Amino acid sequence: MSPRAYAIMHRIHHAYTDTKKDPHSPRFSKNVVAMLIRTNKIYLGIYKNTLPVDEKFMKNVPDWPAFDRWALTWKSSIFWSLFYTGYYIYFATAWWMYLLVPVHILMGPVHGTIVNWFAHKYGYRNFNVNITSRNLLPFDLVMEEEAYHNNHHKYPSRINFGGIRWHEIDPVYPIIRLLNWWGVIRLKELSVKRVETEF
Ligand SMILES: [Zn+2]
Ligand SMILES: [Zn+2]
Known about the structure:
Layout: H1 3-15, H2 32-47, H3 65-71, H4 74-91, H5 100-105, H6 107-116, H7 149-154, H8 173-182, H9 189-198
The structure holds zinc ion (2 copies).
Residues 10, 14, 152, 156 line the site of one zinc ion.
């Protein structure tokens, strides 16, 4: 997915959660497939600049047009599908592992569905934020912190999605801090301060 288009769509999701302007809301789609189709349409509209988007959502997003052009080609999809399949051929030790190949290839929509459909329908809440977001799993070992979706909607710019309850451990948080420490990324003061002062 294009980081630019995804970032813009995600900002719109935060700004208009559970309303008609939300790019993906279980409230306005009959089922998962309908939501995926709607999300894809909006995503492509943002990507191709055919959907009018408020200026405020467009600022400071990563914009790598050459990378995006390559990433959205069939050649790229076929290359990565073959690469993942080859990985399984080399490393898989049982037949059932191959059942994960399609999940792996379609990880973008699979991940998006779990978070944007299920984490807006099922799970527990730490914060009553007047929207449907929930923490889908008490221990999030499979979604790499994204299952703490209620926490994330309460504090969208906080880099640690967990840490509200003792069992909410965000495995990506230390990686982000490490990348920041190495200088690969640069965290904004705000997101660091929030972690230290609010909790
Ligand atoms: Zn959400
Ligand atoms: Zn978010």
